[in-house]
Write a structure and sequence with these properties.
Layout: E1 4-10, H1 15-27, E2 33-39, E3 50-53, H2 61-64, E4 82-86, H3 89-102, E5 106-110, H4 115-120, E6 128-129, E7 144-145, H5 148-160, H6 163-173, E8 182-184, H7 194-199, H8 206-211, H9 216-236, E9 240-241, E10 249-250, E11 253-254, H10 268-287
Parallel strand pairs: 1-2, 1-5, 5-8, 6-7, 8-9
Antiparallel strand pairs: 3-4, 10-11
């Protein structure tokens, strides 16, 4: 009989874990852990938070020339001042209902997770790159170097009205009904292959062929900045950020055996590796 209940909630990136869970349970029939994965994208809840943005004319002049509206290349531009207001009420109620019904001992949160893709997947008309402090990797050829602080600020803005808004709701607004440990799980690193992305473009469709795909090393750098922002948020709230296992990486990106059939998600093999890793990490934290 399992003596610990773990609930993992989030959006599309938990799909790989959810699909891998039945096989994992068959392979671990004597496990003392009851693990449940809920994909809120499939639960009939609205994904978007309520947000507002300032007028484009109010953006700093040094950012304005990089600005593109979401219906341009399919991404936000630098300097967009997007301010989160609140989590969608239906999703908030769904999360609270799950916690009340399941009564988990521990909670794994993988909310949203594609904010870095919004900025990095499609090739920007003005090609750009940036240097992460302490790293020495070369910049992409024929690209304009932008300040690291500008990149990080833009990614953080996007995260604050998506992944971090969801995180804060789970970690703060639900504490009246759940007082156990909460772990933040990041999304997988980028799929490096442009050919794979063009063959499986998903929702970006024709935009992938029209604009092209950004270089994989730029996408990997933006993913690292994004996950660092998530880590900082988790640690600032006194919770634990789960670092992904080295086995899923190849040259800083997602290894081929873990690519899903779209531009950004991991497959069932990825889900199984992450399930094992999550259970190991939460156990290590419990006995520390």
């Amino acid at each position: 009989m399992p003596h610990k209940k773990i609930l993992c909630i989030g959006h599309s990136h938990v799909g790989a874990l959810r699909r891998a869970l039945p096989d994992w349970q068959k392979e671990n029939p004597e496990s003392e852990v009851s693990f449940e994965v809920v994909n809120l994208s499939r639960a009939g809840t609205k994904m978007d938070s309520e947000t507002r943005s300032t007028d484009q004319a109010q953006r700093p002049s040094n950012a304005r020339k990089y600005y593109m509206s979401p219906d341009g290349a399919g991404h936000f531009g630098f300097g967009a001042d997007i301010q989160p207001i609140s989590l969608d009420a239906h999703m908030a109620q769904e999360v609270r209902s799950l916690l009340l019904e399941r009564r988990p001992d521990e909670l794994i949160v993988l909310g949203r997770g594609n904010e870095h893709v919004v900025l990095s997947l499609l090739q920007h008309p003005i090609r750009f790159d940036f240097a992460i402090p302490g790293e020495t990797s070369p910049l992409c050829p024929e690209s304009e170097e932008l300040p690291y602080r500008l990149i990080k600020a833009q990614i953080k803005k996007l995260a604050e009205c998506r992944a971090l808004l969801f995180w804060d709701f789970c970690n703060v607004a639900c504490r009246d009904i759940f007082d156990g440990p909460i772990y933040m799980l990041p999304p997988p690193p980028p799929i490096p292959s442009e050919g794979h992305i063009l063959a499986h473009p998903g929702k970006i469709g024709q935009k992938a062929a029209t604009f092209g795909i950004s270089p994989s090393r730029l996408r990997a750098k933006i993913w690292r900045v994004y996950t660092q922002i998530l880590k900082e948020a988790a640690e600032a709230s006194g919770q634990t950020f789960i670092k992904l296992p080295s086995t899923i990486f190849e040259n800083g990106c997602l290894a081929p055996q873990f690519w899903g059939q779209d531009p950004t998600h991991g497959n069932d093999n990825y889900g199984k590796v992450i399930l094992d890793h999550v259970l190991f990490e939460t156990h290590q934290k419990a006995v520390a």
